[in-house]
Amino acid sequence: MVTFTNLLQVVQHCDKYPYTVTNDGARLLLEDNVCVGTILPPVLNELVAYNQTLDPCPFVICDTAVHFNEHITTMDERTKTVETLMNHWRTQQTFSALAGWRNELYAVYGKDGQPAFVMERAATPLFGISTFGVHVNGFVLDQGEIKMWVARRSLSKPTWPGVLDNCVAGGIPYGYSTKETVVKECDEEANIPESLAQHAKNVSVVSYYTTSQYGLQPETEFVFDLELPLDYQPTPKDGEVECFYLWTLDQVKESVLRGDWKPNCALVVVDFMMRHAYITADNEPDYIDISYHLHRRLEFPCPKIALAIKSL
Amino acid sequence: MVTFTNLLQVVQHCDKYPYTVTNDGARLLLEDNVCVGTILPPVLNELVAYNQTLDPCPFVICDTAVHFNEHITTMDERTKTVETLMNHWRTQQTFSALAGWRNELYAVYGKDGQPAFVMERAATPLFGISTFGVHVNGFVLDQGEIKMWVARRSLSKPTWPGVLDNCVAGGIPYGYSTKETVVKECDEEANIPESLAQHAKNVSVVSYYTTSQYGLQPETEFVFDLELPLDYQPTPKDGEVECFYLWTLDQVKESVLRGDWKPNCALVVVDFMMRHAYITADNEPDYIDISYHLHRRLEFPCPKIALAIKSL
């Protein structure tokens, strides 16, 4: 594990993709030249090799850009094309990212925030696709003092086993509102009933651009605060969580600096501590820089969830 | 006044300096090439003319950069150099920005967030200097519903007379903590006693890059929420405020869309409405884009207020 001497290091450890990149591979473009991802050279090389085996080629590839070929024009066709490719790479064990296949579909948003296609969650880092989730800060007010419910991830999880996590978190399934996602994940991960989960409040959004052994991960997390009753205790349900702790913010901050947290969840915690005035400009020298790393502008289209759920 | 059809337009009306600029004048650099400002061509031309009248020249100027000349090395010397220049331009009525001279000194922060020099507040847009202030959202909880205290600026104010403003706001005098600034401004602008103002909580920071007739204004506002007692009413004191209104968030949002607010204060209000879950990803289609405009990364050094007040 990495330990940190200050909170700026904590957020930089997650939001670590350089801000100015001169040569970062090819951009994945839709018909209207909307950029929805970034393909680094190792993946691009494999994509070129794969593309040559098919006639007509599914992709048009140059050094700086990848397009779908002109015969692929609908959402279903783009989805099928990417699915076939990723299944091929999975079978060939080309990339370790695909060993963690989840059978969970993420939408890839294009022009005007409309979904352009959907793809397997585990494959998104190979194309540097921007992904969206919800994170819930469960907390109590104990005689005026905030205490936070902290989850320890299951030791059997494929990613980040045994490290600390937000009380509840998860990706947004296509067609779900953020609140519906929160209610679903509260039940699945922490056994929190809908009657309580409905009180979760969407109070922030955290965005960052991280990288891992699997590829590029520009990510956006809708942040919810959920005040729980003092006598209520979340409990593991679906095996994602080992156990829950109820900690003071001093304890939480110490654990963050010890590097005990999944990096992106540490960002959500830091955002919580800023919004609740535990971290302030008067006590944190890097206050502004930390805020920048919590709110990175990602140059990819965003979903318009409010419009999507209104139209259902 | 400008009216808006949605909140994204509201925030873009303030955070309006382009994100990618190819030719935006000369950068104002310190000895270590730290960039502390931007000088647009109209100001640069006048600076070149002024510089030629002095021997030795106070500045070294090329098309893309302005440095202090090598005989100017200390904070006092930089301060004196800029003061002499701005007084000259003020006397000559070269720039309308200087008609609003305030006799209020702002620090210009350089390497490691240390003040490199101080200069008259009204002159900062001519050099595109990054400035820092505090804004206070005064609010009450009325049977669980948030109502916000809204200030109408005095009709006699030189800038933005008669428009809506946050309950309390002000620049941070050199050497003040953000909380001390809040307490001072609460007293001066709204007659809020220290016993109440001390409860203001620093819960956010809003940054944006705006432009005006006066020049370039990259600005950072430390945001405080101050819950006031239901039976308490802020009142004008120093003549900056015409009157205060207590409005529901529906009323506040309507007034924001009507364009009744000072643009940067509208950003602080939108930030408040997001943090209090009045604006959410499920009801606002541009939720993420709006958040980006509230948290623009400004490529200038930031003050380290926490270190400065600790060292006093």
TrEMBL record, chains A, B:
Which InterPro entries does this UniProt record tie to the protein?
DUF4743, NUDIX_hydrolase-like_dom_sf, NUDIX_hydrolase_dom
An annotated Gene Ontology molecular function: 8-oxo-dGDP phosphatase activity
Query: Organism's domain of life?
Result: Eukaryota
Could you identify this protein by its name? Nudix hydrolase domain-containing protein
In what residue span(s) does the Nudix hydrolase domain sit? 131-269
Please name the source species: Hesseltinella vesiculosa
